[in-house]
Design a protein that fits this description.
By secondary structure, the protein is an alpha+beta fold. The protein is about 35% helix and about 30% strand. The chain is built from four helices and six strands.
Length: about 170
């Protein structure tokens, strides 16, 4: 059992070290081979390793697929979402985290994504659990690449933030 757990952890770590994610065809091949190796007691750990690689690759690809595409960066969207935590004050703005956001354009549509927003001088007090309908300008979550510094993109990925942006001035906000 410990060997299987070690193989699973090694498979998950292996995907973290890859320069890019394996394609879906390779993932399905790994699943089929993992099932076959699972039937052989001495090679069960190899099957567990391959299963972990395919699962981690699928999970990462699914999380990256939910992100706002680069082609839509800087566009204004009307979104509806639920405020999931208390707004954080930052200089002259509030930082918000909304979930359950539906974003749709004629080229791209996603439901239930999570966004991190800045709102400069909101007209009313915001509380967790509040449903907000606002106009925002979004971009894909990314951060600066400073060696030894804070990795913002990793933080966004770990916290399932699919887009970042700010609330724009609009009469309907």
């Amino acid at each position: 059992m410990r060997l299987l757990l070690a193989a699973w952890c090694c498979g998950l770590l292996f995907v973290q070290l890859l320069p890019r994610l394996p394609g879906p065809a390779l993932g399905w091949l790994f699943v089929i081979v993992a099932l076959a190796l699972g039937c052989i007691p001495r090679l069960r750990w190899c099957g567990c390793l391959l299963a972990a690689i395919s699962w981690a690759g699928w999970y990462a690809a699914h999380a990256l697929e939910r992100r706002l595409p680069e082609a839509l960066a800087g566009q204004t969207f009307q979104i509806v979402g639920v405020l999931i935590e208390a707004p954080q004050s930052a200089f002259d703005s509030l930082r918000l985290s909304l979930t359950g956001v539906n974003v749709a354009t004629h080229r791209w549509s996603r439901q239930h994504i999570s966004v991190r927003l800045s709102w400069y001088r909101p007209p009313f007090a915001l509380e967790p659990g509040m449903r907000c309908r606002v106009y925002v300008r979004l971009k894909p979550p990314r951060g600066l690449r400073n060696l030894g510094g804070f990795d913002a993109e990793r933080w966004y990925f770990a916290n399932a933030i699919d887009a970042i942006g700010y609330v724009v001035a609009h009469p309907d906000n």
